[in-house]
Amino acid sequence: MLLLISVTLLLVGNIQADSAGAWNYIRTDADNGPESWNSNVAFPECAGASNSPIAIQEDDSTEVAAVAWELTGWDTAHTWTVDDKHRTFEYGLEGDKKITTEGGGLVNKYNLLQFHYHWGGDNTKGSEHTLNGKEYPMEVHFVHWNSEYATAGEAIASEDADALAVLGFFFEIQAEDNDELAPYITQMEAARNHENYTTEGVNVDNLSIPVKYAMTGNYYRYMGGLTTPGCNQIVRWTVFDTTIKISAAQMSKIRTQSQTYLDQYGEDFYRDPQPIGSRIVAKYDVNYLNSASLNVACLSLAFLSVIIKYL
Fold first, then answer.
1. Residues 6+ apart with CB under 8 A from 106
2. Could you tell me the maximum CA-CA distance found in the chain, to the nearest angstrom?
3. Closest CA to 269 of 139, 142, 172, 169
4. Whole-angstrom distance, CA of residue 221 vs CA of residue 272
5. What are phi and psi of 169, to 5 degrees?
């Protein structure tokens, strides 16, 4: 089982294909930095038509009714490996227990593999997606694989457009610390000091409290890819507009690491938005049915007033 997990994580990276070739987040590095990914022969899919992230614009989205989510095992204790990859923190789920996500308009049930973070060098930037032109200081991605496949590796190898499903959540600065995040920040600090830091009996319930709350609100859906090399275009993306709150002090703890690693990987650990092209972005609106009913009522009243005028 551990061998299978290791192979799967190697295939998925944080869902970052470290074995595909050298890359980093140093904007001035013309050979390995983000601006080079879409021209690097080692990462041909990074130049594809369905790359991620994207700049989401509410006015350009197709509005549909939000669908309730079904979450299983999110509040159950599991063993997680907290891996400091220096360009992200990755929480990898170990063992053979399942955390699953379905509903929300997803076609399939998806198994949670891991979650990881993207952040910037200061609080003005860091999210990979933007919403209505706004950038956030951090974004967390919950990476799932399609349960039609036995493993994440099989799902990725299938090259199906919906082999993976990723849920993305923005973080927003508030004055006070968010106590729900405190255990995770403590674990990240511990991971900075230990290789392959493993924490047992931890559930994601503290983090899933704000996550579950965000999942009761509006969200955006589009087809895209991994945001790191090799940019496999196999992801059904969901990005939520309700933010998770975090303090500037907590963000500072996440950013703090050796200058050696900052020189090696950069300090802005996110990819800039990629062209949307002909892709459709759907906004799943919790108030859609109410809005639609109101519009119908308004049209009916307007039509009635016209009839009365000519009677």
1. 165, 236, 238
2. 82
3. 139
4. 18
5. -130, 135
3-state secondary structure of 204: coil
For 107, list phi and psi in degrees, rounded to 5.
-75, -30
In the chain the domains, ranked by start, together with CATH numbers, are 2-286 (3.10.200.10)
Q: Which class for 251: exposed (0-12), middle (13-18), buried (19 or more C-beta within 10 A)?
A: buried
DSSP secondary structure code for residue 109 in this structure: -
Q: Which of 110, 105, 112 is nearest to 148 (CA)?
A: 110
Tell which residue, 192, 157, 169, has the closest CA to residue 244. 169
CA-CA distance, 18 to 230, in Å (whole number)? 9
- Helix axis angle, 182-192 relative to 248-255, nearest 10°? 20
Q: In the beta sheet, which residues pair with residue 143? A: 114, 166
Q: Specify whether the CB–CB gap between 192 and 261 falls below 8 A.
A: no
- CB atoms inside a 10 Å sphere around CB 294: 11
Among 68, 157, 164, 163, CA closest to 115: 164
pLDDT tens-place values along the chain, 311 residues long: 333 333 343 345 445 444 457 999 999 999 999 999 999 999 999 999 999 999 999 999 999 999 999 999 998 888 888 889 999 999 998 877 789 999 999 999 999 999 999 999 999 999 999 999 999 999 999 999 999 999 999 999 999 999 999 999 999 999 999 999 998 998 899 888 886 677 776 777 778 889 999 999 999 999 999 999 999 999 999 999 999 999 999 999 999 999 999 999 999 999 999 999 999 999 999 998 755 444 544 444 444 454 444 45
Q: Hey, what amino acid is at 26? A: I
Residues for the chain: how many in total? Answer: 311
Beta bridge mates, 93: 80
Q: Which two tokens stand for residue 96?
A: 């053979």
What are 284's strand-pairing partners?
A: 64, 219
For residue 229, say if its preceding peptide bond is cis, omega within 30 degrees of 0.
no
